[in-house]
Amino acid sequence: MGTRNKFNSPDVDNLILEQRHYEGLFCGCVFVSPDVAVDRCAWLDDGIFVDEKYGKYWKGVKEHGDAIRSAVDTNLTSELSRYLSEIQSSLYPEEYARAILKFDYLRKASESSQKIMLGIMERDDCAVRSAIDSISETRLSMPDIDIAKTPADINTEFIDCITSISPSIMTGIEDLDKQMGGLFMGELTIVAARPGVGKTSLAMAIAQNVAYDQNNENKKVLVFSLEMSRIQLWARMACAKAGIPWKLIRSGRAAQEFIDRAVKSSNELQGELEGRLFIEDETWDVPGMINIAAKLRPDLCIIDHLGEIRWGGDEQDELKWFGRATKIIRAEISRRLNCHTILVHQLNREVEKRTEKRPVLSDLKWSGDLEQLADIVLMLYRDDYYDEDAQKLMSTTVPIELWTRKNRQGIMNACSTLNFNVEQQRFYPADSGNLQIIDKVAQKWYDT
Questions:
Q1: Which of 373, 394, 370, 371 has its CA nearest to residue 384?
Q2: Structural domain boundaries of the chain?
Q3: Which one is predicted more confidently, 132 or 157?
Q4: What dihedral do alpha carbons 423, 424, 426, 431 form, nearest 10°?
Q5: Burial 28-44 (b: 16+ CB within 10 A, else e)
Q6: Rounded CA separation 227/247 (Å)
Q7: What local confidence, expressed as pLDDT, does residue 95 receive?
Q8: Residue 334: is its pLDDT beyond 90?
């Protein structure tokens, strides 16, 4: 922190504290979106920072562009991570840069005013003139930046957009693709259900379809699995492909024939998905996910699930924090990286208290900000989940309803019905028995 001098008053000390706070917020933006900060705020002089560590951090990022390396060099990694909960969006670092300039100006003006008064008292005209000059030399405004766009600007951007637009990502689930037109870049989809209904299975089915489908032009899929290990996710896909329940292999009592089939399917999956599907199961914080996504540049990013994201602590309002986390994910992953994000989420317990169990938007846990931020909200429902008689029958395949409760650009409250193999955690078209929707060649699930 800056060194206090003999002219410092309580007001100056407060200005220093406020400026340091904005320096932390600015560097938090830099930590998440270094390219945006350097592009928009390269004019900000690291020499005006009252906290030398923040100044060195900003200088390092401007020199080599590596926000992580600079944070490690200045020992600021954990400190910057704490500021992320206060940042509305790292896409607008210039707001904090402007605040730094403002408080730098006020602080220096306050210090100079005291020097002027002292100079007057001592009849030292040179000291007074020097203090006045120092105020006039202090920068108060940012360089001119075009903020609002004219119709000509927007028209040019629109034409460029529609003439070079990338095709939407097809989920491989025909009814959903018809309703939504696929998944669009820069948007956020929330997939929600009660525990055990099949939301992770749906997200992974979409991930596998997107990564494997040649029509998706070799799209890359990144999965952040915060609840299940990468082995568990891979086991579900490999065993489903082999037509063998994972619980049988997991028990350690499967016959060698079934193990061989699972191994064969796993090898085939590797060949189909290599370089297209990436699973990260050791990152639980938002900045870490953003950094990994920025390096891989996926076309589809899946986060499973919101409730498992590491957050600020019990002293913070979880409703506000998870809403803010969703806002940052939408801004930094969906929009800045121009990919589609699927955020898996839970429903609250209110749905259990109603006679009608089909979920609606207000059933989202931490509803409010979430339903406003999402472009699409998909909610899953199964009759057998609430029907004790159906559970006693222990059906292998059950109907599952996919409700599109929100669709910013299309049909709302539409329902798609699929068949869901509970043992294999796999989906099939409702009108084709147990036909697979993931494999290119339709076949019965028990065929090999």
A1: 394
A2: 10-137, 174-429
A3: 157
A4: -60
A5: bbbbbbbebbbebbeeb
A6: 18
A7: 86
A8: yes
